[in-house]
Amino acid sequence: MGKKARKERRQRRERKKSGDNSVKRVMNVLGGSFLVRENFVKQFPFMVTVTVLLMVLITNTYIAESRTREIADNTKTLNDLHVTYIQLKSEIMQASKQSVLTKKLSDIGIKPPMEPVKRINVVENQEIEQEEKK
User: Fold this and answer.
1) Could you tell me if 100 and 94 are in contact, meaning their C-beta atoms sit under 8 angstroms apart?
2) pLDDT along the chain (134 residues), means of 10
3) To bridge 105 with a disulfide, which of 47, 91, 96, 110 should be the other Cys (CB 3.0-4.6 Å)?
4) Its pTM surpasses 0.85
5) Dihedral angle over CA of 21, 27, 28, 32, nearest 10
6) Is 34 in contact with 40 (CB distance < 8 Å)?
Protein backbone atom coordinates (compact mmCIF):
# COMPACT_ATOMS: atom_id res chain seq x y z
CA MET A 1 0.00 0.00 0.00
CA GLY A 2 2.86 2.34 0.50
CA LYS A 3 3.80 2.33 -3.18
CA LYS A 4 0.25 2.96 -4.31
CA ALA A 5 -0.14 5.84 -1.91
CA ARG A 6 3.10 7.40 -3.14
CA LYS A 7 1.95 7.11 -6.77
CA GLU A 8 -1.35 8.73 -5.93
CA ARG A 9 0.41 11.61 -4.16
CA ARG A 10 2.73 12.15 -7.12
CA GLN A 11 -0.21 12.14 -9.50
CA ARG A 12 -2.02 14.69 -7.34
CA ARG A 13 1.04 16.94 -7.26
CA GLU A 14 1.44 16.67 -11.05
CA ARG A 15 -2.21 17.55 -11.53
CA LYS A 16 -1.85 20.58 -9.30
CA LYS A 17 1.32 21.68 -11.12
CA SER A 18 -0.23 21.25 -14.56
CA GLY A 19 -3.26 23.21 -13.39
CA ASP A 20 -0.98 25.93 -12.08
CA ASN A 21 0.89 26.01 -15.42
CA SER A 22 -2.30 26.53 -17.38
CA VAL A 23 -3.35 29.30 -15.00
CA LYS A 24 0.08 30.92 -15.39
CA ARG A 25 -0.14 30.71 -19.17
CA VAL A 26 -3.53 32.38 -19.19
CA MET A 27 -2.28 35.10 -16.89
CA ASN A 28 0.76 35.66 -19.13
CA VAL A 29 -1.47 36.10 -22.17
CA LEU A 30 -3.92 38.38 -20.37
CA GLY A 31 -1.17 40.36 -18.69
CA GLY A 32 0.83 40.74 -21.89
CA SER A 33 4.09 39.52 -20.36
CA PHE A 34 4.46 36.93 -23.15
CA LEU A 35 5.03 39.79 -25.59
CA VAL A 36 8.42 40.68 -24.12
CA ARG A 37 9.80 37.18 -24.02
CA GLU A 38 12.62 36.27 -26.34
CA ASN A 39 10.72 33.42 -28.01
CA PHE A 40 7.88 35.71 -29.01
CA VAL A 41 10.21 38.31 -30.48
CA LYS A 42 11.89 35.61 -32.59
CA GLN A 43 8.54 34.22 -33.77
CA PHE A 44 6.91 37.60 -34.50
CA PRO A 45 7.89 37.85 -38.21
CA PHE A 46 6.54 34.35 -38.78
CA MET A 47 3.26 35.26 -37.07
CA VAL A 48 2.92 38.39 -39.19
CA THR A 49 3.55 36.34 -42.36
CA VAL A 50 0.94 33.77 -41.35
CA THR A 51 -1.55 36.55 -40.57
CA VAL A 52 -1.01 38.20 -43.96
CA LEU A 53 -1.40 34.85 -45.74
CA LEU A 54 -4.64 34.20 -43.87
CA MET A 55 -5.95 37.60 -44.90
CA VAL A 56 -5.05 36.85 -48.54
CA LEU A 57 -6.81 33.48 -48.27
CA ILE A 58 -9.97 35.07 -46.87
CA THR A 59 -9.96 37.74 -49.60
CA ASN A 60 -9.43 35.13 -52.30
CA THR A 61 -12.31 33.02 -50.97
CA TYR A 62 -14.60 36.06 -50.89
CA ILE A 63 -13.75 36.99 -54.48
CA ALA A 64 -14.22 33.40 -55.67
CA GLU A 65 -17.66 33.16 -54.03
CA SER A 66 -18.78 36.48 -55.51
CA ARG A 67 -17.64 35.38 -58.98
CA THR A 68 -19.47 32.08 -58.56
CA ARG A 69 -22.67 33.94 -57.67
CA GLU A 70 -22.19 36.26 -60.65
CA ILE A 71 -21.71 33.30 -63.01
CA ALA A 72 -24.86 31.65 -61.65
CA ASP A 73 -26.85 34.87 -62.19
CA ASN A 74 -25.49 35.27 -65.71
CA THR A 75 -26.34 31.65 -66.54
CA LYS A 76 -29.91 32.15 -65.34
CA THR A 77 -30.22 35.35 -67.40
CA LEU A 78 -28.78 33.58 -70.45
CA ASN A 79 -31.31 30.77 -70.14
CA ASP A 80 -34.16 33.27 -69.83
CA LEU A 81 -32.96 35.16 -72.90
CA HIS A 82 -32.63 31.92 -74.86
CA VAL A 83 -36.22 30.98 -74.05
CA THR A 84 -37.38 34.47 -75.10
CA TYR A 85 -35.40 34.18 -78.35
CA ILE A 86 -36.99 30.83 -79.23
CA GLN A 87 -40.46 32.15 -78.41
CA LEU A 88 -40.04 35.28 -80.55
CA LYS A 89 -38.53 33.28 -83.41
CA SER A 90 -41.54 30.96 -83.33
CA GLU A 91 -43.95 33.91 -83.38
CA ILE A 92 -42.15 35.48 -86.35
CA MET A 93 -42.17 32.19 -88.25
CA GLN A 94 -45.90 31.84 -87.60
CA ALA A 95 -46.64 35.44 -88.60
CA SER A 96 -44.66 35.20 -91.85
CA LYS A 97 -46.57 32.21 -93.25
CA GLN A 98 -48.37 32.94 -96.50
CA SER A 99 -51.75 31.88 -95.15
CA VAL A 100 -51.48 34.19 -92.13
CA LEU A 101 -50.28 37.08 -94.30
CA THR A 102 -53.19 36.51 -96.73
CA LYS A 103 -55.72 36.70 -93.90
CA LYS A 104 -54.19 39.87 -92.44
CA LEU A 105 -53.84 41.63 -95.80
CA SER A 106 -57.36 40.67 -96.97
CA ASP A 107 -58.76 42.81 -94.15
CA ILE A 108 -56.96 45.82 -95.64
CA GLY A 109 -58.12 44.96 -99.14
CA ILE A 110 -54.95 43.52 -100.59
CA LYS A 111 -55.46 40.18 -102.27
CA PRO A 112 -52.85 37.69 -103.44
CA PRO A 113 -52.08 37.85 -107.18
CA MET A 114 -53.88 35.32 -109.39
CA GLU A 115 -51.42 35.63 -112.27
CA PRO A 116 -47.86 34.38 -112.06
CA VAL A 117 -45.08 36.87 -111.69
CA LYS A 118 -43.77 38.37 -114.94
CA ARG A 119 -40.09 38.69 -115.58
CA ILE A 120 -38.72 42.08 -116.60
CA ASN A 121 -35.60 42.07 -118.77
CA VAL A 122 -33.21 44.98 -118.46
CA VAL A 123 -31.28 45.92 -121.59
CA GLU A 124 -27.68 47.01 -121.20
CA ASN A 125 -26.62 50.64 -121.73
CA GLN A 126 -25.13 50.06 -125.21
CA GLU A 127 -28.32 48.60 -126.57
CA ILE A 128 -30.30 51.50 -125.13
CA GLU A 129 -27.99 54.03 -126.78
CA GLN A 130 -28.31 52.25 -130.12
CA GLU A 131 -32.08 52.29 -129.86
CA GLU A 132 -32.05 56.03 -129.05
CA LYS A 133 -29.94 56.83 -132.12
CA LYS A 134 -32.38 55.14 -134.42
Assistant:
1) yes
2) 75 65 73 70 88 98 98 98 97 89 86 84 67 61
3) 110
4) no
5) 170
6) yes
